[in-house]
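Researcher: We're reviewing a set of sequences before deciding which ones to prioritize for further study. For each one, I'd like a predicted 3D structure that I can look through quickly. This is IRG-type G domain-containing protein. If possible, include the structure in token form so it fits the rest of the review sheet.
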Amino acid sequence: FRRREAAVREREEQLEREREQQRQQEEEARNYPLQPYQEAANWQGSVNIGLVGNAGVGKSMLMNAIRHIARDHPEWAPVGVNETTMAPKMYAFPGEPRARLWDLPGAGTAAFPRETYIRNMGLRYFDAVINVCAGRFTETETMIQNELRSYNVPFFAVRNKVDLDIENNLDDNGISAQDTKRTIAADLRERGVIDPYLINAKKRAEHDFEKLERDVIAAIRANRRV
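Model: Here's the predicted structure for IRG-type G domain-containing protein, in token form for your review sheet.
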């Protein structure tokens, strides 16, 4: 009889833990829902890849490069020295009819402060994310990376404009291009980036750009669902 009582009590405690977990999940969903732009975009019926990062790191140029879009093409994503992406903008991915690439506003600006950026962009709901930096890997990229990992969202950590780092290190310190790239990759790995991509979005044939392109296409075809 005592064993039966203990078994019943254990089962009741297990049910209570499950109910509490369900309540937490519901609360989390309420606090972090799909964003309006996602709800309006047939989100669940497509594969969505987001480009994120601080303002000015070259996300829009990368958006053009990865789609092989020239400046005179009507689908050219605007680029400039000032912030050019002021709202999430969707672009088709050539050759992948169900895939959409999203050029997201830069984080860490007055319009899109870092503290609310992740939720306001709905990052947990993307099928994969390209997390772009230029120069050092900042707190913003680290914050985004940690969020994506917590929700098991595949992501690609990209160091753009690497040619500037190579040129500066050669001029200032006489360090070769390969040694500079090894140093950058090692620094990123110390910051938790397992497989960094070093690129110049203006030069698709150089550095890790072609590998990035192949891996993004593979992620699209894997068609992860949230």
